Amino acid sequence: MPILKGVDITVSKGEIVTIVGSSGAGKSTLLHILGTLDTPSGGEVWLNDVNLTGLSGNELADFRNRHIGFIFQFHHLLPEFTALENVCIPAYIAGNRQRQVKERAIFLLETLGLKERLEHKPNALSGGEQQRVAVARALINNPDVVMADEPTGNLDSRNARELHNLFLELRDKLQQTFIIVTHNEELAPLSNRQLVMKDGRIIADAGQSLIQ
């Protein structure tokens, strides 16, 4: 039985698009397909004129690493590495030069307010700080789009609000594109567009004007 049914969306550069709906509506499945973590049984996924559904396993992994960033609810930081090292890992995998990688990682962490936490391991960071490290890691390869699955789901209201504002700042300063699955009633209305899903379909695509 198909989970998604006739879903067709287009996201422009510099947009924050949130996907909302009740549990089981297909939000995370859609996000995972858009992020190439899952393979659709039909249809196509395109990013920058590249048909991602036509790439082989190794080609897809390389494209994903270079062009798509991910933020998850539970951070998924490696506990044995520092904040700085965690951020650097995707860029090292991409084969980028170590000095350039470290410079960009430090820039991102300082931009996100973690200048004094570079050498701290995840267990020495608060939940909000860990999520900011995860955001920096998602941005390290300068991705075309960042996919976020319930990024504020494990944060208290203050840290969630700070993360919301951070997404807006990154959109405004870096023209960063975000696609965000969320249940957060504060975050969703702040997006440029809010997609409402029900039973595997998009039943509403509402443009917002609150942050123009």
UniProtKB/TrEMBL annotation:
<dbReference type="GO" id="GO:0005524">
    <property type="term" value="F:ATP binding"/>
</dbReference>
<dbReference type="InterPro" id="IPR003439">
    <property type="entry name" value="ABC_transporter-like_ATP-bd"/>
</dbReference>
<dbReference type="InterPro" id="IPR003593">
    <property type="entry name" value="AAA+_ATPase"/>
</dbReference>
<dbReference type="InterPro" id="IPR017871">
    <property type="entry name" value="ABC_transporter-like_CS"/>
</dbReference>
<dbReference type="InterPro" id="IPR015854">
    <property type="entry name" value="ABC_transpr_LolD-like"/>
</dbReference>
<keyword id="KW-0067">ATP-binding</keyword>
<feature type="domain" description="ABC transporter">
    <location>
        <begin position="1"/>
        <end position="211"/>
    </location>
</feature>
<dbReference type="InterPro" id="IPR017911">
    <property type="entry name" value="MacB-like_ATP-bd"/>
</dbReference>
<protein>
    <submittedName>
        <fullName>ABC transporter ATP-binding protein</fullName>
    </submittedName>
</protein>
<dbReference type="Pfam" id="PF00005">
    <property type="entry name" value="ABC_tran"/>
</dbReference>
<keyword id="KW-0813">Transport</keyword>
<keyword id="KW-0547">Nucleotide-binding</keyword>
<dbReference type="InterPro" id="IPR027417">
    <property type="entry name" value="P-loop_NTPase"/>
</dbReference>
